[in-house]
UniProtKB/TrEMBL annotation:
InterPro entries: Kunitz_BPTI (IPR002223), Kunitz_BPTI_sf (IPR036880), Prtase_inh_Kunz-CS (IPR020901), TFPI/VKTCI-like (IPR050098). It comes from Bombyx mandarina. CDD domains: Kunitz-type. This is BPTI/Kunitz domain-containing protein-like. Residues 80-130, 147-197 form the BPTI/Kunitz inhibitor domain. One of its GO terms (cellular component) is extracellular space. PROSITE patterns: BPTI_KUNITZ_1, BPTI_KUNITZ_2. Keywords: Disulfide bond, Protease inhibitor, Serine protease inhibitor, Signal. Transmembrane segments: none annotated. Residues 1-21 form the signal peptide. It comes from the Eukaryota. Pfam families: Kunitz_BPTI. GO terms for molecular function: serine-type endopeptidase inhibitor activity.
């Protein structure tokens, strides 16, 4: 199978006054190892003012685009791929989290403490921050521990036994990995997962 990887570029774009002052544009491209040119497969724009995803036609005006620092990763592309963390308190509050596997925002029960940034009051807020984040590859240098990332089977169709760390149950679990793509919460053995995550996570 073709080996795939992501090229990420973060940009700022100034919108007209009726669309908000500033928003962050992230463009993901996916490239096959046999292809000289990457193909753009998704563009998403988050508008801080009204929590909507704007049409990619907005970016056609190149004069509005200012590239900031090359292939950097927008922080929300990392935070949206965190596992929803319930916490250990006594409340029972319905929140939304981004499911990177489904590219959808779903509900979970939050106990009121020890959560993370993949936690939203409304579905619209969740989708505004995170829709499309599943296409963004997390780099090893990302400023969060990879043990807290959602399980990701990858793009290919293999049937490989792997292990990931579950932040809510504080243990490593088995999953089936396709063989390419995915993220760093992916270990070949239960022992390696436990050593990396159960020992060092908290």
């Amino acid at each position: 199978m073709l080996k795939l990887f992501m090229l990420l570029v973060s940009m700022f774009i100034s919108l007209p006054s009726n669309g908000g002052s500033e928003t962050t544009l992230t463009t993901a491209t996916i490239r096959a190892s046999t292809s000289a040119k990457p193909t753009v497969i998704y563009r998403r724009i988050y508008n801080e003012r009204n929590n909507t995803i704007h049409s990619k036609n907005i970016i056609h005006n190149a004069r509005r685009i200012k590239i900031l620092g090359g292939p950097t990763l927008w922080d929300w592309d990392i935070w949206c791929q965190l596992q929803p963390k319930k916490g250990n308190c006594t409340e029972n509050v319905l929140k939304y989290y981004y499911n990177a596997d489904l590219d959808q925002c779903l509900t979970f029960e939050y106990t009121g403490c020890q959560g993370n940034l993949n936690k939203f009051h409304t579905q619209a807020e969740c989708e505004g921050r995170c829709k499309g984040a599943s296409l963004m590859m997390i780099r090893e240098s990302a400023p969060i521990t990879y043990c807290s990332l959602q399980v990701n089977a990858g793009y290919c169709l293999g049937l490989l036994r792997r292990y990931y760390y579950d932040v809510n149950e504080a243990t490593c679990k088995e999953f089936t990995y396709g063989g390419c793509g995915g993220n760093q919460n992916n270990f070949e053995t239960m022992r390696k997962c436990s050593r990396e995550c159960q020992t060092n996570f908290e």
